[in-house]
Design a protein that fits this description.
Its EC number is 3.2.1.39. The protein is α/β, with parallel strands linked by helices. It contains 15 helices and 13 strands. The chain binds 2-acetamido-2-deoxy-beta-D-glucopyranose (NAG) (8 copies).
Amino acid sequence: MKLKKWLESVLLLLVAMLSGALGAFVGVNIGTDVSDLPSAANVVAILKAHQIGHVRLYDANAHMLQALSNTGIEVIVGVTNEELLRIGRSPSVAAAWVNKNVAAYMPSTNITAIAVGSQVLTIIPKIAPVLVPAMNYLHKALIAANLNFRVKVSTPQSMDIIPRPFPPSTAAFNSSWNSTIYQLLQFLRNTNSSYMLNAYPYYGYTKGDGIFPIEYALFRSLPSVKQIVDPNTLFHYNSMFDAMVDATYYSIGAFNFDNIPIIVTETGWPSFGGADEPDATSENAESYNTNLIRRVLNDSGPPSQPKIAINTYIYELFNEDKRNGPTSEKNWGVFYTNGSAVYPLSFSGSVQNTGNSSAVFCVAKDGADTDKLQAGLNWACGQGQANCAAIQAGRPCYLPNNLKSHASYAYNDYYQKMHNAGGTCDFDGTAMVTAEDPSYGSCVYAGSSNSSGGAGRSSSSTAAIAPMGSFGASSNLQVPILQSLISVISVFFALVSL
Ligand SMILES: *[C@@H]1O[C@H](CO)[C@@H](O)[C@H](O)[C@H]1NC(C)=O
Ligand SMILES: *[C@@H]1O[C@H](CO)[C@@H](O)[C@H](O)[C@H]1NC(C)=O
Ligand SMILES: *[C@@H]1O[C@H](CO)[C@@H](O)[C@H](O)[C@H]1NC(C)=O
Ligand SMILES: *[C@@H]1O[C@H](CO)[C@@H](O)[C@H](O)[C@H]1NC(C)=O
Ligand SMILES: *[C@@H]1O[C@H](CO)[C@@H](O)[C@H](O)[C@H]1NC(C)=O
Ligand SMILES: *[C@@H]1O[C@H](CO)[C@@H](O)[C@H](O)[C@H]1NC(C)=O
Ligand SMILES: *[C@@H]1O[C@H](CO)[C@@H](O)[C@H](O)[C@H]1NC(C)=O
Ligand SMILES: *[C@@H]1O[C@H](CO)[C@@H](O)[C@H](O)[C@H]1NC(C)=O
């Protein structure tokens, strides 16, 4: 038993180190309006089994905080809207809250932030005047407990406080909130905290009444005639999610604050809805969340802030059957309470077989070194076992007859076959992934929606997994393999500890 515990912590530490090293993360919100909510220990077992390393609680439930201790999982705790008024009026209530709900669990439970209220400006605008004072009191209490460098204070807000989010470059907060927003941004900057954004393309799409194509909401590639471009910046928006995050960056920028990063504290898609909610389907939910995870884990920011990754929490872990409202409101969860998935979803970003909705292609980069490209092409068609027939003279992908085009075809063919087995799109730095289908004319790339199942996603051949040797790419390979190994082992431990 001791050995098991020890192994478990070593493995979780490894998972934590790996996910740290890999940059951006995707976590999950844990709502508890669930009639058969599992015990805290079982909730944590489900998190571990699915390699979820970041969670947000809506309160500071003692059982959950205890169960999350020594797991390596990072936790955002919540001040509820009901608690907010008293905290905002009294520094001593704030201090007691921090001592009871944060300090008492640190450091064994890794609490990294306090989310103060939930969408306060739109849900209970009356108490907006106490919001920033409450945040200040909590921050002062953290200073007193010497926790201010580890625990940040912020407050999740809805997109609804930005009345016209498109085009992002002209977005601005509703001016009724000027003074609260100004104080809030000042607080976030002074304390090095993030702006917490709840961003729901599901609502942007369903309330847009057909203004936006569904592909845009689901991170699917858009036909060239439907590209979404900001007319002022000429930035292309591949997804409504990116546009919402950028609208928020521009709204913050309009107050002359920069360097306040955004984290998305809620986003998701319901998997089931009422008769009047045709877009709430498990296909769309799977597509949205799968593509979201891939989007976030690519580590880039939105067009205006490409270097700031968008850490994101999916809404939500379980279907909350006790919630009021339309049917969809009860169906945002990604797991059932028995731990099985509502639809296939991998938090580690490894690609699930989700058909055409998540096509990602691997192509040669512009301006890549010619010798390296040639070596990559040779490797892919040789050891890599890509099917390079189509780029031979007279075949559909022979023209244009140049190295970049041939390498792209071969790289992609290799990648489509092998990425599930850990094959990477790297080729000594000459390759990149793209959501844009590179097919043209009769030259159809593997993985394209036009290809007749040629992607060979679950190819049983594992002879060649990734470029080795001269590519020095073995390190690219280790991470996915190690991750799946860890995943298998932690599932095992999760089951043992259930
Ligand atoms: C807690 O999370 C922070 C933020 O990622 C990390 O730097 C720190 O090492 C973690 N602490 C523990 C004890 O795991
Ligand atoms: C801004 O907020 C106020 C107060 O909530 C609201 O009455 C008004 O309609 C909002 N303005 C816009 C443009 O949404
Ligand atoms: C809010 O701020 C904007 C921009 O600074 C300004 O144009 C607007 O007049 C302000 N509104 C109020 C109600 O103060
Ligand atoms: C914020 O970050 C700056 C620079 O990284 C640092 O000097 C300062 O101490 C930090 N302040 C807080 C409150 O964390
Ligand atoms: C878990 O619960 C769901 C929904 O109630 C059910 O469809 C599924 O079969 C259950 N899975 C297992 C393994 O019991
Ligand atoms: C995905 O495939 C389905 C059915 O095969 C089709 O209806 C849908 O249009 C395709 N979507 C894309 C983006 O190609
Ligand atoms: C990451 O995603 C963004 C937004 O979709 C895209 O613009 C960018 O090219 C992607 N980067 C890579 C390396 O795939
Ligand atoms: C896919 O096939 C359709 C119909 O044959 C064609 O119009 C479309 O351009 C093709 N798409 C690509 C990316 O080749």
